[in-house]
Amino acid sequence: MGKTLVEIKQALDANVGKRVTVKANGGRRKTVERSGLIEETYPSVFIVKLDREKYPIERISYSYTDVLTKTVQLTLTEEEELQA
Questions:
Q1: pLDDT truncated to tens, each residue of the chain (84 aa)?
Q2: What Gene3D superfamilies would the database entry show (predicted)?
Q3: Taking the domains of the chain in order of start, what are their residue ranges?
Q4: Which of 14, 60, 72, 78 is the most exposed place for a label (fewest CB within 10 A)?
């Protein structure tokens, strides 16, 4: 995985529609883990459609900067890692 915003966006563009696990920093030593599909990518953000039966929220968005700064870590469910 690349270390620039452009490379991160390209990697996510290539994986649209695939299942992913998201680990996000929730603040105050709290980590939130969710799973879903990478639904769409936009110039500044990407959207993950969450599993309906597990989460009350339908969609959640993150910026590519979140991935770059490791505030958000993405792992494909096939155990391929997008961001280490």
A1: 458 999 999 999 999 999 999 999 888 889 999 999 999 999 999 999 998 888 888 999 999 999 999 999 999 986 545 554
A2: 2.30.30.100
A3: 5-76
A4: 78
